[in-house]
Amino acid sequence: MLIISYDITNDKLRNRFSKMLTKHGAIRLQYSVYEVNHTNRILENLIIKIEELFAKKFEGSDSVIIFDVSAVKLKKYGNAIHRDTDIVYF
C-alpha cells in the first residue's frame, strides 16, 4: 500500500494531481492524503506521470511524498477499518 501526501499551491495543478491519483485507483483519506493499493506497475506509472506531467510545474514550496507502507504494520481506526474488509452482497 502507498500513502501519497501532497501540498501544491496552484489550485488548477492541485486539482489535476488529485484527479490523476483518483484515476489510478487512489482513495482519498484526507484532502491531500491518498491511499493506493498498488503493484509495482502502478507505482512505476504514478512516478512516470508525476515526473512527466507535474514535477516541472511545481513551485519551490510544493511537495509530494510517496510512502510505501506495505512492509509496515498498520493499525487503523474509525472509518478506515472498513477499507480492508471484503463485502459480499447476495
Kindly describe this structure.
This protein is an alpha+beta fold. It is 31% helix and 22% strand. It is built from two helices and four strands. Strands 2-3-1-4 form a four-stranded antiparallel beta sheet, covered by helices on one side. Helix 1 (11-23) packs antiparallel against helix 2. The protein starts with a strand and ends in a 22-residue tail after the last strand. The model has no long low-confidence stretch (mean pLDDT 87).
Q: What's the total count of β strands?
A: 4
The helix/strand class is: alpha+beta
Rg (CA only): 14 Å
- State the shape: globular
The percentage helix is 25-40%
What is the strand content? Answer: 15-25%
Low-confidence stretches: none
Query: Count of helices?
Result: 2
What's the N-to-C terminus distance?
29 Å
Please state how the strands of the largest beta sheet are arranged side by side.
2-3-1-4
Largest sheet: 4 strands, antiparallel
The run of helices and strands is: EHEEHE
Mean of the pLDDT scores? 87
